[in-house]
Write a structure and sequence with these properties.
The chain is of the alpha/beta class. It has helices at 14-26, 36-55, 69-79, 96-106, 128-131, 154-161, 183-186, 235-250, 252-273, 300-309, 329-333, 338-341, 355-368, and strands spanning 2-3, 63-66, 87-91, 111-115, 136-140, 168-171, 190-194, 205-209, 278-280, 290-294, 312-313, 320-321, 324-325, 344-348. Helix content is 38%, strand content 15%. The two termini are 20 Å apart. The structure holds pyridoxal-5'-phosphate.
Length: 369
């Protein structure tokens, strides 16, 4: 199988899998237990917390482990219920873990406004001032989009809004390991991460919070994670995430170069074969290795099925049910017409892909289209 869907998830690194296995076997004690086995488990969690913090330029005490990016995003949003300012601004191309959660918390008294994007998927930062009001208690704009790869000018937006003292969250789930992520440079108050997007395990993520006072627990129970995320810790997942984060940040430059080479090679070789194909997103500010491409008059679910039969895995941003493909919310927000929207594939290369793999993908596309 040729796998080109690394934005959906990445294969776990062998050394990370090994570490998880070892942790599960040897360090099974409850980290809240005060005997030495428990203390050892606790020390492993604290080491991983430091590794995650180092990967994004944070302090260990600013990192809270969650069950993934979805929970990290939800925790920030639901936290706002307990605060006076109950208006939230988010971009119109956020992941459903923001957009759907916003719709849900609306019924509990939160109001929200969506910041539009241009046809390349970059937020219209100038529109922000029209959306901000005296009740705005959070701005949430993703670092990089998961369907088209566009990287948002987070640092600039934070600078522009800093005098207003509105907490800023960024969903950086797609970014770590592919492009530098540093909370001090960005100036954000909250940042979400998910281990399975950078060759770590699934079901574990983290939330960076600049100041603990800015967060309320979403999962209530024991006193784990300084009382901000109850439940016995997923020790092996946390340990795996720590190692994956360390490796992701150590190898980020190499990964960036490799993925860019694959992407450029694909784009250059695709254009002469498919002059009608349209590349979506902002090519000057985008994730390496992610390509959103529309093949007019070719439904993406059919293309995906045909590629699958050739042993090739790619994705489309659109939600697919059998025999029915719904236009993607992200592409819609970028103004892409429905016909083209449902004819769009997302190809996301990973560290394990080679130029030879890309050639095979190009050949397969030529045969099926
Ligand atoms: N945010 C973005 C931008 C994502 O791409 C994803 C996963 O696809 C998530 C959040 C959700 O992360 P998780 O799968 O860890 O819950």
């Amino acid at each position: 199988m040729l796998y080109f869907d690394h934005s959906a998830t990445t294969p776990i690194l062998p050394e990370v899998a090994q570490k998880i296995d070892h942790t599960n076997r040897e360090h099974y004690a409850n980290p809240s237990s005060i005997y030495s086995l428990g203390r050892k488990a606790r020390s492993l969690i604290e080491k991983a917390r430091q590794q995650v913090a180092d990967a994004i330029g944070a302090k260990a005490e600013q990192i809270y482990f969650t069950s993934g990016g979805t929970e990290a995003n939800n925790q920030v949003l639901w936290s706002k219920l307990a605060e006076k300012k109950k208006h939230i601004i988010a971009s119109s191309i956020e992941h459903p873990a923001i957009l759907k959660a916003l719709k849900r918390i609306e019924s509990y008294g939160i109001t929200f406004s969506l910041l539009p994007v241009d046809n390349k998927g970059t937020v219209k930062a100038d529109s922000l001032e029209h959306l901000i009001n005296e009740n705005t208690g959070l701005i949430s704009i993703m670092f990089a989009n998961n369907e088209v790869g566009t990287i948002q000018p987070i640092q600039d937006i934070v600078k522009k809004t800093s005098s207003l003292d509105i907490p800023f969250h960024t969903d950086a789930v797609q970014a770590l390991g592919k492009t530098p992520v540093n909370v001090s440079t960005l100036g954000v108050d909250y940042l979400s991460l998910s281990a399975h997007k950078f060759y770590g395990p699934k079901g574990i993520g983290a939330l960076f919070v600049k100041n603990k006072k800015m967060l309320k627990p979403l999962i209530i129970g024991g006193e784990q994670e300084s009382g901000l995320r109850a439940g016995t810790e997923n020790i092996s997942g946390i340990v795996g995430m720590g190692l994956a984060a360390e490796l992701a940040s150590k190898n980020q430059k190499d990964c960036f170069e490799h993925l860019n080479i694959l992407k450029e090679y694909f784009m250059e070789n695709l254009k002469p074969r498919f002059p009608n194909a349209i590349f979506n997103g902002n090519h000057n500010h985008c994730l390496p290795g992610l390509i959103s491409i529309s093949f007019p008059k070719n439904r993406s679910d059919i293309l995906m099925a045909k590629l699958d039969r050739k042993g090739i895995a790619v994705s489309n941003g659109a939600a697919c049910n059998t025999g029915n493909v719904k236009p993607s919310v992200v592409l819609k927000a970028m103004g892409i017409e429905d016909d083209l929207n449902i004819s769009t594939l997302r190809i996301s290369f990973g560290n394990g892909n080679s130029l030879d793999d890309v050639d095979q993908l190009l050949k397969a596309l030529e045969i099926i289209i």
